[in-house]
Amino acid sequence: MSAKKENLMEKIVSLSKRRGIIFPGSEIYGGLANTWDYGPVGVELKNNVKKIWWKYFVQEREDIVGLDAAILMNPKTWEASGHVAGFSDPLVDCKKCKTRHRGDKLLEEKFGVDKIAGIKLEDVQPRLIKEKIKCPDCGAVDWTEAKRFNLMFKTHQGVTEDSGSLVYLRPETAQGIFVNFKNVLDTTHMKLPFGIAQIGKAFRNEITPGNFTFRTREFEQMEIEYFVAEKDWKKKYEEFKEACWKFFTGYGLNPKKLRWRQHASDELSHYSKETYDIEYQFPWGWGELEGFAYRTDFDLAQHEKFSGQKLRYREPETGKEFVPHCIEPSFGLDRTALTFLLDAYTEEEVRGASGEKETRVVLKFHKDIAPIKVAILPLSKKEELTKPARDIFNSLKSHWMVQYDETQSIGKRYRRQDEIGTPFCVTVDFETLDDKAVTVRDRDTMKQERVSVDKLNKYLKDKLEAC
Ligand code: GAP
Questions:
Q1: Residue 288 Cα, ligand 1 centroid: separation in angstroms?
Q2: What is the DSSP string of 1-69?
Q3: Are 387 and 416 in contact (CB under 8 A)?
């Protein structure tokens, strides 16, 4: 990783802390490794990512409906889904310093995911030794044999802690959708093809979490299980691929930093017949942003077998019953928010108030993603300006997230708003008292326009809500 790229991640972490986007988890107790809390600005960012995703994939489509299933599920779910038997990573220990690592990831860092995907468990340790892969903690090349490590978090429901009370924290939201397939079908009478979407928490006891919120043990997913007749899967798969790409690029991600990567046959998850990932070029290299799998009828068929319930679709025209096949776009919410954050981060050289060169840090978010849409900034703390400024704030706050800020110089306040990506700053100055107009500053161009107060709402609406 080059110093410049390392630097970008450090800058993002520090900006996030400074501006209330993302804080280290449980910080007053010294933290808890790889946990992160979203601050006042970060929670708006995350909510906006949820909103645009839901709008794009649920609200604007007739063929997808929503769901919000419980995190704790009957443990049979995870037997049926194959997670109890197969949801594991190859774990190796460094014999010298006793730290634990994901053997496949250590190899991937050197050779790339394409070359390592699907490596057999028994080949991991010999390959680490042959390639002289050093322990990242102590530098030794002294690895134990690789063992399978199941990633599901276990806990107990109720007051006893015996095997009968064992439950898992769901490692993917998808299974909540599969077990509700019949409920949704019976209550909505959807016709194939149709999808069920869900946003919610998932948990994985990752061996090597890291890179800020990219890989954590608690995260949120935004998933769609899209049900089709088997003969239609490929057509729908291609349509969805295009829709997913448009989602990211339409909301401003740089297409040059995005690519599709197909999983090799020995890399595919146990349920998948074909998978592509949308990858983003993160500061540390290409990484998965969204997984897109053809899950066949694997999940519904497994749940039929384990539950004894029929999970079938009855074709209205023919009366024929069958288990639908499923394609699955699966997005990480935290990873998507991080990607928008990284992609929006811009440094520009500008002239300061006294003409000297300075660096402006600005998050050039798409307006729908920007956490705060408008900042209201009275030029002075005198009541003659704060009163009309507050009146403007009150007239806008029911439409958008608006911030009122009267502390420090106007230059500093502009910088603060740039750093959280606020598209418009509205300055109330002494002239406002005479001309009943305010100065509206555009985040990206820094151009300022005088807008009359009674037309401000419409002016902002046209800019913020334009498609
Ligand atoms: N239901 C399919 C599924 O869960 P996945 O590829 O394992 O597929 C889907 O996960 C997405 O969830 C990933 O593309 C990523 O964005 C996100 N994700 C997975 N593990 C994660 C983790 N440990 N931390 C943050 N996001 C994660």
A1: 8
A2: --HHHHHHHHHHHHHHHHTTSEEETTGGGT--TT-EEE-HHHHHHHHHHHHHHHIIIIIT-SSEEEE--
A3: no
Question: What is the distance between the alpha carbons of residues 339 and 322, in angstroms, rounded to a whole number?
Answer: 40
Given 324, 340, 356, the domain boundary residue is 340
Q: Rounded to the nearest whole angstrom, what is the distance from the C-alpha of residue 251 to the centroid of ligand 1? A: 20
Residue-level length of the chain: 467
How far apart CA 225 and CA 291 sit, in angstroms, is 12
The answer on 135 and 57 residing in a single domain is no
Question: Ligand 1 mean position to 332 CA, how many Å?
Answer: 5
**Ligand 1 binding site (Cβ under 6 Å of any ligand atom):** 172, 174, 204, 206, 215-216, 219, 221, 223, 288-291, 328, 330-332, 334-335
Give the DSSP letter of residue 264. Answer: P
Residues 33 and 63 in one domain: yes
Percent of residues, the chain, with pLDDT higher than 90: 86
173 with 33, same domain? yes
Looking at ligand 1, which residue's alpha carbon is closest to its atom 9? Answer: 330
Residues 346, 445: Cα–Cα separation, whole Å: 13
DSSP 321-343: EEPPEEEEEEEEHHHHHHHHHHH
Atom of ligand 1 nearest to the CA of 215: 24
CATH number of 121's domain? 3.30.40.230
pLDDT at res. 429: 96
**Does residue 117 carry a pLDDT above 80?**
no
Alpha-carbon distance 192 to 229, whole Å? 7
User: H helices of 252-312, where?
Assistant: 298-307
Q: Mean pLDDT score of the chain, rounded to an integer?
A: 94
For the beta carbon of residue 80, count every other beta carbon within 10 angstroms.
Answer: 23
Residues 371, 422: Cα–Cα separation, whole Å: 7
The alpha carbon of 389 is separated from its chain's Cα centroid by a whole number of angstroms, namely 35
Q: Containing domain of residue 456, as a range?
A: 372-464
